[in-house]
UniProtKB/TrEMBL annotation:
The chain crosses the membrane at residues 6-24. It comes from Xenopus tropicalis (Western clawed frog). It is found in: Membrane. This is Histo-blood group ABO system transferase isoform X1. GO terms for molecular function: glycoprotein-fucosylgalactoside alpha-N-acetylgalactosaminyltransferase activity; metal ion binding.
């Protein structure tokens, strides 16, 4: 009797062992290596070498211990209900982030559109970006313009380059702003997909006044509009006509995002721009245009495809909104403009 049990137990154990072996033999253990450990490739299996940890730039990097029982900021929300971080001054350690992104060799694209009279903004935009945007990282500017000769030939720092892309401008400023979605989308699939890992899309009528670096990067990010961060949903200037593709009902909406700054991985920015362009074309076929143009469609996208990171209004400030105490830094600021002079 006991012999029978022994045979069964042995058979069962043998089965268990071969089952486990069968399922684990081809597993790529390298996949489970926590970033930023280095792995050594030895055929199909990758083995972590603890020696190599010493080569990590994070090895013996000393910094203040994160305190789980203390919030880095108590005056503002620093993570959304869907657990996306909201980037404010004082919520991140730039040294750690810089090392992580250097290790990945992140290539960062910046797209900007300089059409018709927006030429007046581009010199300050680029000069200030050289000083404050992604310092120390690989940057590729993509300047889309209807007038190549109007783009200044500025000296770029090491690891940074610029490409001027000739496009034909639309007459109405509303079309200029909205068509950016299509142009970005198409240029991603034509070219950018092979040149950069992340793409940051900005308006030209902005000036960098303070640091903007890799803390902004993530799969897909949006910036909270400086005019609405304390407002109720009903105050958001979303498109409210239910027959528009940009429609957001008054009892929906998380934040009001600005149209002047968004980005993410090139793949994610492709999806975003594709959605916004298609929504705009749907409305165009009905002869309508959402209230705030591309910004309205972007807000619609972010409502149903939540951004994985949000940037506080520090990242798209407008002095029209004064100086609230929660805004400790004004990193990127709208350049005051004479609307009639730049838009006609
Ligand atoms: C304004 C801004 C516009 C648009 C609008 C939304 O402050 O200049 O571009 O974002 O808010 O209500
Ligand atoms: C304007 C801004 C334009 C565009 C528009 C909203 O205030 O100057 O560049 O962003 O709002 O689509
Ligand atoms: Mn603008």
């Amino acid at each position: 009797m006991a012999g029978k049990y022994l045979v069964f137990t042995c058979l069962f154990l043998a089965f268990l062992l071969s089952f486990t072996w069968y399922h684990l033999k081809d597993r790529d253990w390298g996949r489970y290596t926590a970033f930023p450990c280095q792995t050594e490739n030895t055929g199909s299996n990758s083995i972590i070498s603890h020696e190599r940890l010493k080569d990590s730039p994070l090895h013996r990097m000393l910094y203040e211990k994160p305190d789980l029982l203390k919030l880095p900021r108590t005056d503002v929300m620093i993570a959304t209900p869907w657990q996306a971080p909201i980037v404010w001054d004082g919520t991140y350690n730039l040294d750690i982030l810089n090392e992580l992104f250097h290790l990945r060799g992140a290539r960062i694209g910046l797209s900007v559109f300089v059409i018709r009279k927006y030429k007046v903004f581009i010199n300050d935009f680029l000069q200030s970006a050289e000083e404050f945007f992604m310092a120390g990282h690989k940057v590729h500017y993509y300047v889309f313009t209807d007038d190549v000769s109007g783009i200044p030939n500025i000296t770029l720092k090491e690891g940074r380059n610029m490409e001027v892309v000739k496009i034909s401008g639309y007459k109405r400023w509303q079309d200029i702003t909205m068509r950016r979605m299509q142009l970005i989308r198409d240029y991603i699939s034509q070219k950018l997909i092979n040149e950069v890992d992340y793409l940051v899309c900005l308006d030209a009528d902005l000036k960098f006044m303070d640091h903007i670096g890799v803390e902004i990067l993530g799969d897909v990010f949006g910036v909270i509009h400086p005019g609405f961060f304390g407002e109720s949903r009903t105050a958001f200037t979303h498109e409210r006509r239910n027959y528009s593709a940009g429609y957001i009902p008054e009892d929906e909406g998380d934040f009001y995002y600005t149209g002047c700054f968004f980005g993410g991985t090139v793949e994610e920015v492709y999806k975003l721009t594709n959605f916004c362009h298609n929504a705009m074309m749907e409305d165009k076929a009905k002869n309508i245009e959402a209230l705030w143009h591309d910004e309205s469609y972007l807000n619609k996208y972010f409502l149903y495809h939540k951004p994985t990171k949000l940037l506080s209004p520090e990242y798209a400030w407008n002095d029209y909104y004064g100086s609230p105490v929660v805004v400790k830094r004004k990193r990127l600021v709208h350049v005051p403009k004479d609307y009639n002079a730049v838009r006609d």
